[in-house]
Amino acid sequence: MDAVFADTNALIRLLGGDTMVAELTDNKLVFISEMTEMEMLCKPNINKEQRRIIRSLLDDCVIVPFSPEIKQKAIKIRLSTRLKLVDAIVGATAINMGFNLITNDLAFASLDNLLNVILLPNLE
Asked: 1: exposed, middle or buried (C-beta count within 10 Å: 0-12, 13-18, 19+)?
């Protein structure tokens, strides 16, 4: 199975038309953490059409539920790195699934011994 794991910022960039993210996810199953799903659905100041587009994108993703194993990995990651708890959960989920993580968050570099991180360039 050809699959990747996407961080929240990668999905946001995909929605914005980022061609690099589109190429990285093209013809692949895109897995996301339940935490990423929540972050996307909790975006403030978006209208009904934008929310519908987000929901459609999420419907195309495989959402990995929080589990006791992911919880324990996230705790270990949080205690041993400078990652925020939300990012530790995303990282733990990606590690658990064994897929490359697409992100533009440099903080995930602290997991490069546990996970292959595809670091997107910053848009500026």
From this structure: exposed
Instruction: Tell me which residue range forms the domain holding 62.
Output: 7-119
pLDDT value of position 124:
60
Cβ 119 vs Cβ 108: under 8 Å: yes
User: What would the DSSP string read from start to end of the chain?
Assistant: --EEEE-HHHHHHHHTT-HHHHHHHTTSEEEEEHHHHHHHHT-SS--HHHHHHHHHHHHTSEEEPP-HHHHHHHHHHHHHSS--HHHHHHHHHHHHHT-PEEE--GGGGGGTTTS-EEEPPPP-
Please check whether residue 15 lies inside any domain of the structure: yes
For residue range 16-61, what is the model confidence (pLDDT) as tens digits? 999 999 999 999 999 999 999 999 999 899 999 999 999 999 999 9
| CA–CA dist 12, 116 (Å, integer) | 20
pLDDT of residue 122: 84
Q: What percent of the chain has pLDDT over 90?
A: 93
In a domain, 93, yes or no: yes
